[in-house]
Give the backbone structure.
Amino acid sequence: MRLTLAMLLVLGLSACSEEEDLRRYVAEVRSRPAAAPEPMPEVNEYVPEAYVPVSERSPFVAPRPESAASRGQAPRDCEQPDMQREKQPLESHSLNNLAMRGSLQNAGEMRALVVLRNGETHLVAPGDRLGLNHGEVTAISAERITLKEYVSDGRGCWTQRETTLALAGEPQ
């Protein structure tokens, strides 16, 4: 019983000393001078610009892409991808979302394993299509897949470019 009473006495005294420290700290903080607030930043004067409806498009009409507005009929003397053919599954994915994971060779025919970001794996052969730019696989090696892509110039013609999809972990 005496031990319990002694413990309560010690706890009571220690609580008083902590409260006194807290009161002293609060008094010290209140006695400090208050810092002046930072001045407001200067605001530049607003200068309205006149709208000239002849030289600029109307803000009340939805914008049209330049290629769609000026296209009409595509020129017949420039290169065009086959827009009528049926799209293959990998043509709905950007090349940034595809990764080459390996290659297989059977009876002299080279194929590649291409993995989507979601982990889905596809077997690709020369002539298959992938990527958003009408890419066609032209060659497969142990290190990379070579593609022929068509890129629109915005005026109805298309330019061919060669792109590679390197084995994952190797620079392109």
